[in-house]
Amino acid sequence: MGAVLGVFSLASWVPCLCSGASCLLCSCCPNSKNSTVTRLIYAFILFLGAAVSCIMLTEGMESQLKKIPGFCEGGFKINVAERKVDKDCDVLVGYKAVYRINFALAIFFFAFSLLMLKVKTSKDPRAAVHNGFWFFKIAAIVGIMVGSFYIPGGHFTTAWFIVGMVGAFLFILIQLVLLVDFAHSWNESWVNRMEEGNPRCWYAALLSVTSVCYVLSVVFVGLLYAYYTKPDGCAENKFFISINLILCFVVSIISILPKIQEHQPRSGLLQSSLITLYTMYLTWSAMSNEPDRSCNPGLWSIVTHMTTPTLAPGNSTPVVPTPAPPSKSGHFVDLESFIGLTGFVLCLLYSSIRTSNNSQVSKLTLSGSDSVILRDTAANGGSDEEDGQPRRAVDNEKEGVQYSYFLFHFMLSLASLYIMMTLTSWYSPDAEFQSMTSKWPAVWVKISSSWVCLLLYVWTLVAPLVLTNRDFS
């Protein structure tokens, strides 16, 4: 608990680097007006929460968590022979702590998303709450977090697991939207440069990136077939890989059809190649949660197998990768979770620094009639001083917000749930751990998210043909 309080109290000083304005309680607490700075601060708070969640999975911290009254009761019961279990506490307290920390973050950001509904300019009083009062917001998060550690387990943990699965599923879809946005922005930037300079050079670069993505996807598929299927078994994995491979091929063909190109001239194989690679990642992520360990050897076991001699000493029998045994001590972030968290970090950073004037995602977060595309600071007559005082952050939202406050906080709430599910490996808290494996619901949630992602991408391609009365330029 001391780590939670200590780390998060430090966060209240971070905003001091962003602005010189002061709030009611602390002269160091800023009223950060710049839209990018504000988003980065919120992102930093979430990163800090993820870091504290990782700390809670260490062995030393677990021994301290067991001292919290009532914390050794409820879900995440352990019954694993290979794992050292405290006779007085047979609960994965690290996982319970991760649930509590991310419960606090999810509740905080969800409450803020409701508070920020229909905020259209920084002149709205609620915008001041969004961009300032950092001390009170940090204090609120810490307060919710500490209180959540004393919520009884049982039904709460089980219900929050279901909420977490739904939230993580939605955040995976948000990652796809941001990936499509990035691909569109990247493609548009290259097309503009081709029109200005040497087109052959930029065509070659565009073709190279597209080719690399498709080659990596094919290699990915080959590795999945090699390590996550068997000739006489793993039928589900064979189905997942094959169907997603076929769907990705179909999506790529759709993206270059003449009718699609007529209405979406800048869509093409670059975006499809990135979507294909992301779909293969989701396929692997789903299979990494499969309960049958013979069809899910684990990424670390695969890496170890690939970096060691392929033949056993004294014979010519290939060494088959075997799953790593359950941890005998404290739990920490495994390789699969680390990769998932890396995607989360990139997604959150991109959503924090992107701007509405060149983002396709802005069409999802800003309605055309209720918002404006802002002129830059120079055109607005912005300066480095305000009321005779130096200004470190410029209010660039007086005429209209650059992003939806509601959707941004809602995304952070979903991201908190995604962190929770990733760090606990999507394990169900209501089952005794006879073996350290997750259950089929996690597999189906992830694999279905890959299908929904492909469906959403296809919709972005065909929407201009269906909704002819709307402007998609």
TrEMBL record:
It comes from the Eukaryota. Its main location: membrane. The keyword Transmembrane helix applies. It is a multi-pass membrane protein. It holds the Pfam family Serinc. The chain crosses the membrane at residues 6-28, 40-58, 97-117, 129-151, 157-180, 201-227, 239-257, 406-427, 447-467. One of its GO terms (cellular component) is plasma membrane. One of its GO terms (biological process) is antiviral innate immune response. GO terms for molecular function: phospholipid scramblase activity. It is found in: Membrane. The keyword Membrane applies. Keywords: Membrane, Transmembrane, Transmembrane helix. Belongs to the TDE1 family. This is Serine incorporator 3. It comes from Ursus americanus. The gene is SERINC3.
